[in-house]
Amino acid sequence: MSYMNEKLLKPYDPKNTEERIYKLWEESGFFNPDNLPGERKEAFTIIMPPANANGSLHAGHGLVMTIEDIIVRYKRMQGFKTLWLPGLDHAGFETQVVYEKQLEKEGRTRFGMDPELLYKEILNFTLTNSANIKSQIKQMGASCDWSREKFTLDDDIIKIVYQTFKRMYADDLIYRGNRIVSWCSKHQTSFSDLEIKDEERMDSLYYLKYGPFVIATSRPETKFGDKYVVMHPDDKRYQDYQDGQKIDLEWINGPITATIIKDEAIDMEFGTGVMTITPWHDNADFEIAERHKLDKEQIIDEFGKLLPVAGEFAGQHIKKARALIIEKLQTKGLVEKIEENYKHVVRTCYKCGTVIEPQIKSQWFVRMKPLAEKALEKINSEEIKYIPEHYKKITTYWLENIMDWNISRQIVWGIPIPAKICTKCGHGMVDLENKITKCTSCSGEVIKDNDTFDTWFSSGQWPYVVLGYPDNKDFKTFYPTNVMETAGDLVFFWVARMIMLGIYITDKIPFKTIYMHGMVLDAKGQKMSKSKGNVINPLTLTEKYGTDAFRIGMVVGNTPGTSLSLSEDKIRGYKNFANKIWNATRFVLDNTKDFIVPEVIEYDEEDKKSDEELKALMQEITKEMDEYKFYIVAEKLYHYFWHTFADVVIERSKKKILENQNANSAKTLLYTQLTTLLVALHPFIPFVTEEIWSMLPDKKNLLLVEKWPS
RNA sequence: GCGCGGUUAGCUCAGUUGGUAGAGCAACCCGUUUACACCGGGAAGGUCGCAGGUUCGAGUCCUGCACCGCGCACCA
C-alpha cells in the first residue's frame, strides 16, 4: 500500500480538503513573491479590484477571484516573481447607501445624525464585513499575498491621495467651480456624470402661452423664474424680435418682463422653436445663460421643494406641484395644448431612481481634457491592450468626449477633502496641514470643506498607491502592473480613470493589459437581484459541489466581456470531473506501485502517439493561456482528461498491464500523463490537484510552485 | 438619434488568417469489464436571425434589414 492513499478509496470530498490545503499554501509563504523558490527575475503583478466591504461575496466576486487566480497561478508556475495584491474597498457612496437602508429599517435616518458618530458606525459595519469577505475570498482559493493587503482608508493610502490632490491643484488640473451639478434629492449629494442613469419616460408636453410666444415644456414646475425667452437667430418666424428686446407679459404668478435672447443651441424643429430657460436646473439652459451672461435663479431647493419665488406654491414638492401649476395656468388661459404620451429621457440617480435635479453648486472639479489626451495616446499606440478589444473603442469614445469631473460628495463616508473654503468669495484652497486661516484671495474668513472625495478619485489611484509610490521597493519592482482584470461596467468609473491618473502621477501606464469580464447572470440569463429573488450565492455552490467545480464551471465557455449564465447543472457536472480525476488517480497509483518511471522512456507505438498528443496539447494551451483564452484551455483539458486519458489511455493500459505486454510503456504513460495533467489543471482546480499531488510518491514540493512545462 | 455587443443542436455557449459545423448539460438506446453509476458504449439532433454581394468555396469578409441586451455630453 505504499503508493496508495486510503483517502482515494472514498469519493473526493472537497469539504475535508479545501481548508486544509489553503492553510498549507498560506503557511508555505509562496503567495508572497519574496518567498518564491528559485531565481525569479521577472515580476508579474495583478492588483485585485478591492472588494466592497458592504456585504457578502457575490457571484461576480466569484468570477473575479477565479480568473485572477488562474492567471496568477499560471504565471507563478512559469517562474515569474508573482504578486497578486488583495484589497478591500470602503466604497464611499455605495456603502453609505447600504448603511442608510439599514438605518431606515431601524427607524433611523442619517440626517440630523452627528457626522462623526455616523462615520464611526459605518466604519464598524465595514470592518465587520471585511473580515467576512476576506475569509470568503480565501474559500475561493485565491492565492493572493495577504501580507500586502490594503484597505482604501489606510493612512498611507490617504496620504498619497492627498498629495495627488495638492499636485493637481498646483498644476491647475483641479479647480473649485460654481457649476451646475447632478443632484439627488434623496441622497443629498451631487454626482459625476457617471452616477446618472438615463431612463425613458412617458410624460406630458405642455404648450404654454408666454406673451406673444408659445413655449413647450415637460417641466412647468421650473418655470417660475423664467425671464429669458430664447430662439434661433435664423428663425424667420421670429425675425421681427431682436436680441435683448424686452417684453411685458402675464405669467404664472403675475406680470413679468422677459428678455429675448437669440442662441444657436435652439432646435427650430422642436415644439415652436421658442423656449424659456431655467439656468439653475438645466444643463443646456445653464450653458446658454453662461454664453449670454444672464441671471440665474434657484427655483427648487435641495430637497425638491419649491422656493419662495414660486409664490403660493412655495414649500411644495415639485412632484405634487406640477398638476396644481397646470391647473392655475389653465384658469388663466395660458395653456395652449397638452401633448400626452410624450416620450423622452430623464436622468435619474443610479441607486434610487430619483429624478436628478441639476443644481448650481460650488464644488471641486478635475479638468479632464489634458489627462484624457495623454491616456488616448497610450491607448491608441497599443501600449495598453484591451481584452476583449471592443472596450478600447468604447473607452476612446468616452475619453474624446470627456467632461470635467466633479469629485465633491456631500456624504460622510469617505476621505475628507483637505481644503478650506472662503465664506466671503467662495475661493477654495488645498490645505493638507490644516494651516490656512484666512482666504488667500480676499482675506475673508474660511471654513473647512465638509465634503468627501468621490470614492473613484482615490480608487483611481489604486495601482500605484498600494505599491507605495514613489519610494517603496514594491513600486519599483511591481509597477507598472501586468493585468487589470475587472468587471466591464467599470471601464469608465475605474479603469479609464486609473489610466489617466496613473500616467499623470507616475508617467507610466498603470497596467499593460485590461481584461474585462461580463456580468454573471442567473441560469435563465437574467440579471440577479434581491427583488427578483434569483440571486445565486457562490458559497452555497462551493459548499455543495466544491470550490474546484465552481471555479472551472465559471470559466469554461465564458468568453471575456460577454455575460455568463450561471447554472447549477453546469457546476454539478464539474463536481463529477473532480471525482473523475480522483478515481483515475486511484487507478494509476494502484497500477504503478513499486514502479519507477525510467530515465530513458521507451514507449510502444500507440503510447508514443499518446505521449506526443499530450505534448502538442500542452503547447497549444500554453499559447492560449498567454492569450487569456481560459475558456478554451479549461474545456480542452477537461476533454482530454476525460475522453482521452481516462477513456483511451487508461482503458488501453488495462490489457497491457494484465497481460504484461508492453506494461512498462503503459505504466510510464499513465504516470507521466497524470502528473502533466495535474500541473496543467492546477490553475483551474487547485484544491483536488494539490491534494492528489501530495499523494504522489516522488513529488515532494507543493504543486503550487511546480514548474509549468514549456 | 448615435455607438457597442449578440442572434449557431431542446438549454448554455465555443468556433483563432474563409476550406465538409463543435463541447457541456438535457433527452434516447444499450451495458456492471483492475478506477469511477459522481460510470462506460452507441445513436440522434443545426437551410449557423433574414436578404443581397465578394469568392472555386462564407457561420467566418462586405452591404442592408429584423429582433434582443447594453452604453452615450445640449431636443426644451
How would you summarize what this structure contains?
This protein is of the alpha/beta class and 710 residues long.
Overview of the molecule:
By secondary structure, the chain is α/β, with parallel strands linked by helices. 40% of the residues lie in helices and 19% in strands. The longest helix is centred in the C-terminal third of the chain and has 30 residues, at 630-659. The two termini are 34 Å apart. The model has no long low-confidence stretch (mean pLDDT 93). The structure holds one RNA strand of 76 nucleotides.
Write the layout of secondary structure elements.
Elements: H1 18-28, E1 43-47, E2 51-52, H2 59-77, E3 81-85, E4 87-89, H3 92-105, H4 115-139, E5 150-151, H5 155-170, E6 174-184, E7 189-191, E8 196-210, E9 213-217, E10 228-231, E11 246-251, E12 254-262, E13 274-276, H6 283-292, H7 318-331, E14 335-349, E15 357-366, H8 369-380, E16 385-387, H9 390-400, E17 405-406, E18 408-409, E19 419-422, E20 428-430, E21 446-448, E22 452-453, H10 455-459, H11 462-466, H12 473-478, E23 481-487, H13 491-506, E24 511-517, E25 520-521, H14 538-545, H15 547-555, E26 564-565, H16 568-591, H17 605-626, H18 630-659, H19 663-681, H20 686-693
Helix pairs in contact: 2-15, 8-9, 8-13, 14-15, 15-16, 16-18, 16-19, 17-18, 17-19, 18-19, 19-20
The chain binds one RNA strand of 76 nucleotides through strand 9, strand 13, helix 6, helix 9 and strand 26.
